[in-house]
Amino acid sequence: MYYVYMLRCNDNSIYTGITNDIEERMKVHFEKKKKCARYTYVHDALRLESVWVTESKSLAAKLEYHIKKLTKLQKEQLISRNEYLNIFLADKINVEKYEYVKELKG
Fold this sequence. Notes:
With about 110 residues, the protein is an alpha+beta fold. About 40% of the residues lie in helices and about 25% in strands.
């Protein structure tokens, strides 16, 4: 399984990434470990805002790409209501391939 996630940063910006181990990736971002993204190293990650799970890295990369193309306002709307995934991206990807994760286990 692969995860696409959105993080809120200390300057109110939104970072989007993919991983196959969401818990470990969050530790890396929040603790600024060696493999921390350059962006979240400079713009401290404050909280995890949204997570979607999908079956392959290819599908995750497609969703990440399209989320990164959204405006800041659209990203905020997507965070507030997962239904916006269908509104913003249904004409670009098969949104049924992604499951919104409300809470992470662990």
